[in-house]
């Protein structure tokens, strides 16, 4: 009884989040309801355990990497603003946004930012480079025990060879963008809302 | 004798006593005539259905009023959607990753499988989609409603209201807590008290047809009183399929009230763990009148023992059908979760039953992590009513070549279909426990097949 989801989120906050992320009013209140239902400790922030309680995420091979994307460097709690900021990367790109004025700062769900999200899933130590070791570790997460070290190693080598253009044996963000330039990132890294 | 005679020393005192005496007598007579006697004979005056219709009209008015009020004040309404908020792709891992690769490459897709950096998009999107909305965690909290039923506990728009609505809500509160609640608590005590007392008395009789007959009548009567104690308005469908002796009745589980709902229409042998306290007293006296299957806490873990007692019971055709809830825990009545296969291994005929509550009158789901049993019962008894539908489905048996798990899933699908519930493969145990690693390993295996050709996959040691 008493105050519930949308009554705790003030209109000014909703406006701010709307400006920052581009989500609509109803989407924000809906996601706030989701945020509070995940927040078992009822302290206004989510911890890693709160995410791990979602079974579909727990069985995702890259579940831990995705959870990590929500937490800024060194922090263990994420509040609703941070939650929305990360989710905003997956908002579909609307047509009227494509022709937006270049002076406006890049929206969170631009193609570049979507690619940055994916890049950070690979870049474990956040040094803006995907090294061979990092690629191997992520590959190992995705395949489990089904592929031998040697094969995985050769897959990693081949991938770096194809992507690396400046010869430093690791993949930078620009090289990453180049490799994926033909992929339909806008669609594949977007989640469509039903209303 | 009333003890406040000693507290008040004025002539007003006598008058108060007389008035109280009269009102208690009237109260109990009304109770007896309109509620208890019909319960004993299983007839109904139709008062509850009339009540239900009136309430529905009231709720519609209240919801419209809120919407109008919100529009006038230019507030945006919070509209709950118990269905999905995001579009979920029903495609498999293989299809989706192939699609991603196809969009990014000129190469012929039938060439040897290999890794693409874009593969990660699949996992990223699936993961974030499950963070926004997943199929499992929302089953363990109460369903959200679109119309308002004048209970603050179920509405997020409460502060957007007019004076008339507040008055109505206040009136509703008054009626529910000062009239309905005491009435229902009285009935509940009557029902339970009679059950304990009468079953003990019947237990003194020698085993035989008379004992069974009386035991059935007593159980039915007391459960019917309890049904009225909750103002439960139940519609039974397809009663020709009611469970028979030697069978097992399985139903989806939403709350402890499920037992009362089913047992007021038929006689069952209950299965469960022996509790302490009041519950234990009730259980111990019930078993005096007819054979129920109660387990000690330590015995519950022993699956063979459980299976043996269940199969011994079903083999004796003079014993009542067993009532079991295979989900093992309370789910919020929007879905049916994994059935534990124990009851499906025994080989008896299974009588599936689907129970669907109408959430507009009061949410029957017991969120055991939020409310204890007493708190829950009080909430139930101070709601407007419990309205539900029960469907007795045709009996099913295990077919040739079907194992217990497949049989359980078949029964579950039938129940889900009839009750209009979502059929999920997830285990209700995920309410409290962690998901098994095998599911993640399956995902990893599926993905590995896209990286290297099948013969090169490392063999996994079988468990």
UniProtKB/TrEMBL annotation, chain A:
Transmembrane segments: none
Cellular compartments annotated: Cell membrane; Cytoplasm; Nucleus
SMART domains documented for this protein: EFh
SUPFAM superfamilies per UniProt: EF-hand
GO CC annotation: cytoplasm; nucleus; plasma membrane
Gene3D superfamilies according to UniProt: EF-hand
PANTHER family the UniProt entry points to: EG:114D9.1 PROTEIN-RELATED
Name of the protein in question: Calcineurin-like EF-hand protein 1
Organism: Cyclopterus lumpus
High-level lineage: Eukaryota, Metazoa, Chordata, Craniata, Vertebrata
Gene: chp1
UniProtKB/TrEMBL annotation, chain B:
GO CC terms: endoplasmic reticulum; membrane
Occurrences of domain Phospholipid/glycerol acyltransferase (ranges): 247-358
UniProt KW keywords: Acyltransferase, Lipid biosynthesis, Lipid metabolism, Membrane, Phospholipid biosynthesis, Phospholipid metabolism, Transferase, Transmembrane, Transmembrane helix
One MF annotation (Gene Ontology) recorded for this entry: glycerol-3-phosphate O-acyltransferase activity
Protein name, per record: Glycerol-3-phosphate acyltransferase 4
Intracellular or extracellular location(s): Membrane
InterPro entries (UniProt xref): LPCAT1-like, Plipid/glycerol_acylTrfase
Source superkingdom: Eukaryota
Family to which the UniProt record says this protein belongs: Belongs to the 1-acyl-sn-glycerol-3-phosphate acyltransferase family.
Residue ranges crossing the lipid bilayer per the database entry: 20-47, 161-179, 185-205
This protein's pathway: Lipid metabolism; Phospholipid metabolism
GO biological process, one term: phospholipid biosynthetic process
């Amino acid at each position: 009884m008493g105050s519930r989801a949308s009554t705790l989120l003030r209109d000014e906050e909703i406006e701010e989040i709307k400006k920052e992320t581009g989500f609509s009013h109803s989407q924000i209140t809906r996601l706030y309801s989701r945020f509070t239902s995940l927040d078992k400790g009822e302290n206004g922030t989510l911890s890693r355990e709160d995410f791990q309680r979602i079974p579909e995420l727990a069985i995702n091979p890259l579940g831990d990497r995705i959870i990590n994307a929500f937490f800024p460097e060194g922090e263990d709690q994420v509040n609703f603003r941070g939650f929305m900021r990360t989710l905003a990367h997956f908002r579909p790109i609307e047509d009227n946004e494509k022709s937006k004025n270049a002076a406006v700062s890049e929206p969170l769900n631009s193609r570049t930012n979507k690619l940055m999200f994916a890049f950070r899933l690979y870049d474990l130590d956040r040094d803006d480079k995907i090294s061979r070791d990092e690629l191997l570790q992520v590959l190992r997460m995705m395949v489990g025990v089904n592929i031998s070290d040697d094969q995985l190693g050769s897959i990693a080598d081949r991938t770096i060879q194809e992507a690396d253009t400046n010869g430093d044996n690791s993949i930078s963000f620009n090289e990453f963008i180049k490799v994926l330039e033909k992929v339909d990132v806008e669609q594949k890294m977007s989640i469509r809302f039903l209303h | 004798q009333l003890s406040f005679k000693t507290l008040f020393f004025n002539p007003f005192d006598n008058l108060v006593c007389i008035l109280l005496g009269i009102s208690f007598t009237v109260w109990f007579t009304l109770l007896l005539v309109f509620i208890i006697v019909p319960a004993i004979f299983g007839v109904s005056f139709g008062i509850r259905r009339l009540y239900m219709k009136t309430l529905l009209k009231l709720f519609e008015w209240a919801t419209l009023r809120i919407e109008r009020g919100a529009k006038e004040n230019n507030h945006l309404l919070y509209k709950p959607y118990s269905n999905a908020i995001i579009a979920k792709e029903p495609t498999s891992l293989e299809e989706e990753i192939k699609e991603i690769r196809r969009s990014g490459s000129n190469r012929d897709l039938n060439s040897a499988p290999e890794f693409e950096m874009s593969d990660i998009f699949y996992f990223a999107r699936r993961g974030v989609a499950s963070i926004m909305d997943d199929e499992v965690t929302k089953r363990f909290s109460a369903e959200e409603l679109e119309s308002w039923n004048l209970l603050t506990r179920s509405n997020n728009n409460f502060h957007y209201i007019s004076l008339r609505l507040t008055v109505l809500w206040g009136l509703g509160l008054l009626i529910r807590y000062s009239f309905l609640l005491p009435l229902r608590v009285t009935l509940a005590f009557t029902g339970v008290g009679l059950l304990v007392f009468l079953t003990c008395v019947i237990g003194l009789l020698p085993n035989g047809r008379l004992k069974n007959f009386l035991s059935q009548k007593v159980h039915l009567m007391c459960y019917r009183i309890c049904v009225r104690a909750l103002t439960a308005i139940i519609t039974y469908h397809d009663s020709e399929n009611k469970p028979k002796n030697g069978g097992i009745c399985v139903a989806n589980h939403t709350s402890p009230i499920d037992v009362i709902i089913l047992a007021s229409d038929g006689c069952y042998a209950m299965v469960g763990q022996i509790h302490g306290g009041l519950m234990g007293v009730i259980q111990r006296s019930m078993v005096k009148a007819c054979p129920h299957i109660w387990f000690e806490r330590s015995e519950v873990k022993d699956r063979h023992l459980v299976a043996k007692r269940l199969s011994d019971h079903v083999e004796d055709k003079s014993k009542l059908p067993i009532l079991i809830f295979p989900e093992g825990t309370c789910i919020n009545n929007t879905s049916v979760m994994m059935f534990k296969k124990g009851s499906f291994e025994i080989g008896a005929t299974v009588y599936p039953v689907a129970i669907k509550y109408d959430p507009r009158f009061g949410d029957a789901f017991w969120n055991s992590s939020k409310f204890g049993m007493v708190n829950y019962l009080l909430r139930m008894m101070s709601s407007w009513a419990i309205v539900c539908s029960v469907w007795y489905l045709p009996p099913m048996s295990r077919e040739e070549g079907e194992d217990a798990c497949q049989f359980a899933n078949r029964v579950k699908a039938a129940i889900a279909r009839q009750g209009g519930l979502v059929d999920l493969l997830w285990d209700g145990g995920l309410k409290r426990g962690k998901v098994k690693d095998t599911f993640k390993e399956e995902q990893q295996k599926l993905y590995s097949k896209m990286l290297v050709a099948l013969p090169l996959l490392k063999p996994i040691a079988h468990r």
